[in-house]
Design brief:
Its EC number is 6.3.3.1. One of its GO terms (cellular component) is cytosol. By secondary structure, the chain is of the alpha+beta class. 30% of the residues lie in helices and 25% in strands. The longest helix has 18 residues. The protein is globular. It starts with 19 loop residues before the first helix and ends with a strand.
Length: 383
Amino acid sequence: MAQPHQTTAGLTYASAGVDVEAGDRAVELMKEAVRETHKQGVVGGVGGFAGLFDVSALTAYSKPYLATSTDGVGTKVAIAQALDVHDTIGYDLVGMVVDDIVVVGAEPLYMTDYIACGRVVPERIADIVRGIASACSAAGTALVGGETAEHPGLLGEHEYDVAGAATGIVEADQLLGPERVREGDVVIGMASSGIHSNGYSLVRKVINMAGWSLDREVSEFGRTLGEELLEPTRVYAADVLDLARTFPVLGDDGAQGHGVRGFSHVTGGGLAANLARVLPRGLEARIDRSSWEIPAIFRVIGELGKVPEPDLERTLNLGVGMVAIVDPSVADAAVRHLNDRGSNAWVLGTVARADAPADQDPDYVQGAKGVDGGAVRMVGSYA
C-alpha cells in the first residue's frame, strides 16, 4: 500500500493561502473610516462579532416597520480590478442597497458589508471599505460591521466581490408604495451619474467585441473609457428622504396629503420595469422619452454594439437613476426642491388609467419582477 507523502514541515493556514495577519492590517487601515459613519444608536466599536444598534428611540414610533435590503455590485468589480482603482466601488454597493430601502420612505439605520477575495491586500481592502464608509456617510447610515474572507483557489489573487445589507425604519402610516398612487400624479426623474451598477455584462461584452481598451480616450466622454465605466453610482438616499419629509404623504389631519406618493430605484431591468413595480394595477405611467437626452455613455454602447433600443431600455438606466411619483399640485415645487439640492430632476410623465396595449408592444410593460402591478408606457423618441 502506498504511504502518504511526508513533508518536513506541516501545513499552515498561511501556506494554504490565507493570511490572517493581512486581514488584521486591513482592519487597522479601515477602522477610522468606519468609525466616522457611526451616529447616535451605534453601540461598541469596530471588530465585534456583531454590530450593535440601540433601538430604544424607536419607542417613539406608533407602528414602526423595519425595511431591509441586500445586494452586490455585479461585474462592475471587474472594471475596478482591471484599473486597480478600488475606492469608488463602495458607492456602487451602498447605492444598490440603501436606495432600495428609501423607496418605501424608510430611513436607513445601519449597513454591513462582505468582501470575498482571492488574497487579502490590506491597502486594497481598506480602499474598498473607505468607499463604502464614505457612501454610508452621504446616505446618513452607519456602517456597523462587515467581513473580509480570503478564498484562495476559488478567486484569483487580484479578484474580489462585494455585497452588503442594510436595515431601515418607517412609520407604518408614512409607508410609500403603489396604494398611494393616484390617476393624474406626476412622474419625476432624477439623473443617474452613469451606468451605475447594472448591465455591465452587456457593456463589457460590447467593448470586448469592439476591441476597445479601458485606457482609450473617448471624445464623447472627455476622459478614458475606463474612467467613464467606473463612475460611481449616485446615492440618492438623502435627497429622497428630504423630498418625502418636505412633501409628506399625509396631511396634518392624517388624511391623504398632497405630497410624495412613491419612489422607484432604477436598477436591473431599466426604467419601465422598475417603475411598474410601484404602480397599482389599473394605472399606467406614460413616460415621454423626449423629456431627457440619453447621456453619451449609453449612446456609445448602443451604437458600438448595435444594441436594439428595446434591449438598451430593458438593461440600462439610460440616464434616469431614481423616480419620484408626486401629487400634481406639488410637482413643480418638488422638481425645484430636488434641483436646489443638486439632484438634476425633471418631469418624465404622468400617471393615467391603463389602456389595453397592442399585442407584444415593446413600449409597454405591465408588472415586473414578480409584482403583478401597474404598467408603464414609453412614448415618443429620445431627445
